[in-house]
Amino acid sequence: MAVTTTAKMTTNASLDVQYGGNTKSGWLEYLPESWLPFVQLARLSPPAGLFLIFFPHLFGILHATIHTGLTATDVLRASALMFGGSLFVSNAIHIWNDLIDAPLDAKVERTRHRPIPRGAVSPTAALVFTISQAVGAALFLPLMPTGFIRTTLYSIPGIVGWTYYPWAKRYTYYPQVVLGFCLSWGIVMGSLAGGFVPFTTDGLWIFVDPSSFCLFAACTLWAIVYDTIYAHQDLSDDKKAGIKSLAVLYEGRTKPLLWQLLMAMTALLIICGSLSGMSIIFYSVAVLGSATSLGAMVWNVDLKDSRSCWFWFSNGFWLAGGSIAAGLIMEILNVGV
Hints:
This protein is mainly α. The protein contains 13 helices and 2 strands; from the N terminus they run αααααααββαααααα. It has helices spanning 2-16, 36-42, 48-68, 72-105, 123-138, 148-171, 175-193, 210-231, 235-241, 246-250, 254-275, 280-300, 306-335; strands spanning 199-202, 205-208. The protein has a two-stranded antiparallel sheet with strand order 1-2. β1 and β2 form a beta hairpin. The protein is globular, with a radius of gyration of 20 Å. The protein starts with a helix and ends with a helix. Its cofactor is Mg(2+).
């Protein structure tokens, strides 16, 4: 019994750091105890969630720069603007997701000690916190070069998507697709921050920049890949709780799906580069780098091991996102924009 109890305690301790929203390590140790549940709700440590939001915004800025010739100062300003907005957006959507998902989180070992299920934060307090962060994000809209009203209109699809996302896992096996769309909408907002409008409307017609669409679609597939691996952490509990995901739908057939998504993502990045007239640098760094890092993740991850899924999710997305960002930056430097 002692061995079993110790093993369970070790397992629970490891689950605490797997983005469960209940970690107390690192700089969180120095916070007042009353602050801790709210920081945990916002997932500020580890900062994976923040950068999952910020990366697509950065891609949009850098892609826009290739088309518009932004100065270095303008790129830095737009990046700072998007990083600030991403911080509040990340906080808001994580809190909102936890608020709606609290009944489900209570049924999953990795998430049952999150602030709301364990009673550290009331649903009312979580809702107020969500609204405060959403207001904080909205304060960045007037700072956009496209103006407050136009930028707000462009942000509506993302807002609707993020609002619906917590319910997606209840009614569809494709919440990763919803998440991918929401995250990739950051490319649209980043493009606007860079002074480039990726799509326009004229009556019933929508005109989309082809290279922006390919980058958007590639980013969506990237998100589906890493979030499907993330979802495998809780596969057993999710099946018992009736939580739907691509991990539940495909289960033993997930890896072939991930390889197909990776190949499609790579093809879309190649087309994006071709449509934007990019050099070999983009293909060598952004395309090859992201394909190699994601390929290593898909090849090596043990989808039956929760810790393996967490390791490759928490490390693999940095390499892929960093490769795409680095490729775009090096392309800008190469052409002397």
